[in-house]
Structure formats: C-alpha cells, structure tokens
Design brief:
single chain, alpha/beta, 39% helix, globular
Length: 201
C-alpha cells in the first residue's frame, strides 16, 4: 500500500492545496492521500490561525468529492506535532506501507530546518510539488544538498510535474475580508459557505 501524507495549516484550504495533491496521488499511484491539518504549525510560531476545528472541517468539506483523499485529526492536539512524529505514527500503524510525504519546493529546500529532518528521509519518500515562483526559493544548504542528492540516488525523492495553482491562503483571506467576487474559482463552494456561515475571516 502507498500512503501520501500532506500536512499544513490549510487556513483556508483552496484549490492550490487540492489540484496538485490530486496529481501527486495519480502520478505516484497512491492508495490514500491523507491531509493533516495541524493545530499548532511548528514553522509558524507567531501565527494565530483560525481555530483548528474550523480548519479541519473546511478540509473535510473540500475533500468530500475527492476519491482516495481524506483528512485525519492526528495533529489536532494542543501542542506542536512534528512531522517526524506523524510519520512514526503511520509507520507503526501501517508497517508494510510505503509512506510519501507531500511537500512544496520551498519546504523541500529548507528541510534541514525541520525537527529530526534526517530521520524523515529514512521513514518516508518525498513527493515535491511544483508551485509558482519556485525559482525564487533559496538554494538548500550544502549539507542538505548532499543528503538530498543521496536520497535522489536511492529514488526516495519524486518530482511531481503538476500544473501549479497560483493561489495562497493569505490572498484568499484578504479576498474574503474584501468580499471579493469569484472566489468559487479558488475555493470549493462548501468551504466558502462554511466560512460565510461562521464569519471566519
């Protein structure tokens, strides 16, 4: 079995989170792709995100029609949950599965800032999503570049040639605050209805 794991704050989830992940699932032949909204994003310590339960519900609503893609509450706890801990959890639960960590190019190039980052590469294969502006990301450190080169040699890094979606959650929140039109092109309709009902932004 092949399982993809995709973490983030998803504040809110939008098509830039969904379409590339759908393409990654198809390209890698994943049996399941699991979204993991985090209650306390470890890489954004100063961020005050929308309540975790609301973000979880929005992901659930966004994925209702997506085959093989679901959401897990595993990181919905009142402490920072590091990616390595989540990977260890799924390794215990599915010892025979191949685990794929879905991440963007920016995170890939800064992987050495993650907690116990070398162990991540031993537990999971990396599926790197393209996104607009990738060329502006800083180059990885020499140490990380060396480790990633070895991971490439071992076929533990997969580049997903998806069609990037030029959307950010920050822009979505600003658009909602301005009552912008046509956000249904960027965010699933059920998610927009939920945001409107609870006046989230």
């Amino acid at each position: 079995m092949k399982i993809g794991l995709y973490g983030g704050s998803f504040d809110p989830i939008h098509y830039g989170h969904i379409r590339p992940a759908r393409e990654a699932r198809e390209a890698l032949g994943l049996d399941r792709l699991i979204y993991l909204p985090t209650a306390r994003p470890p890489h954004k310590p100063g961020l005050s995100p929308t309540p975790a339960l609301a973000r979880y519900v929005m992901v659930e609503l966004a994925l209702l029609a997506e085959r093989g893609m679901a959401v897990s509450p595993h990181e919905m706890v009142e402490r920072v949950v590091y990616t390595i801990e989540t990977l260890e959890h799924y390794r215990r639960e599915q010892p025979e599965a191949r685990l794929f960590l879905i991440l963007g190019e920016d995170s890939y190039r800064r992987l050495d800032t993650w907690h116990r980052w070398r162990e991540i590469l031993e537990i999971a294969e990396l599926a790197v999503l393209e996104r607009p502006g990738d060329g502006g990301d800083p180059e990885p450190s020499a140490e990380l570049a060396s480790v990633l080169a070895e991971a490439h040699r071992r076929a533990r890094v997969h580049r997903i040639a998806n069609a990037p979606v030029a959307i950010s959650s920050t822009e979505i929140r600003r658009g909602i605050a301005r009552r912008s039109e046509n956000l249904s092109q960027l965010v699933p309709r059920l998610v927009l209805d939920y945001i409107d009902k609870y006046d989230l932004y």
